[in-house]
């Protein structure tokens, strides 16, 4: 499957440098990062699973995390709350 992915200009140089440092192409690096992200999220695709089975497991994982969000008060996102007197 081919997917078009927009990589923000501020992220691209770091990805290219990491790919060079690892001696791989950018495509290989991105695939590796995606695989690691999927695996760490608990939704790794097993070759033994059909697409429907994988989707069922993925949807079950999503449902198991429903309601786990935290709503922060607006004050928590203010600069002073984040940096205190260090952001001056």
Structure, described:
The structure is a single chain. By secondary structure, this protein is mainly α. It has two domains: 1-40; 47-88, no CATH class. The protein has four helices and no strands. It has helices at 12-22, 26-40, 51-64, 79-83. Helix 1 (12-22) crosses helix 2. The chain is flat. It starts with 11 loop residues before the first helix and ends in a 5-residue tail after the last helix. The mean pLDDT is 80.
Considering the chains and any ligands shown, give keywords for the structure:
2 domains; 88 residues; single chain
Low-confidence stretches: none
Q: What is the tally of beta strands?
A: 0
End-to-end separation in angstroms reads: 48 Å
* H-E string: HHHH
| Count of alpha and pi helical runs | 4
Gyration radius (Cα, Å) is 19 Å
Mean pLDDT: 80
How many domain units?
2
- Overall, the morphology is flat
Give the helix proportion (percent range): 40-55%
Main sheet specs = none
Roughly what fraction of the amino acids lie in strands? under 5%
SS-based class? mainly alpha
């Amino acid at each position: 499957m081919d997917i078009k992915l927009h990589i923000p200009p501020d992220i691209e140089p770091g990805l290219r440098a990491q790919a060079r440092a690892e001696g791989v192409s950018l495509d290989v690096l991105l695939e590796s990062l995606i695989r690691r992200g999927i695996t760490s999220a608990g939704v790794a695709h097993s070759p033994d699973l059909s697409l429907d089975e994988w989707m069922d497991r993925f949807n079950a994982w999503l449902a198991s995390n429903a309601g786990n969000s935290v709503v922060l008060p607006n004050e928590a996102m203010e600069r002073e709350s984040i940096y205190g007197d260090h952001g001056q």
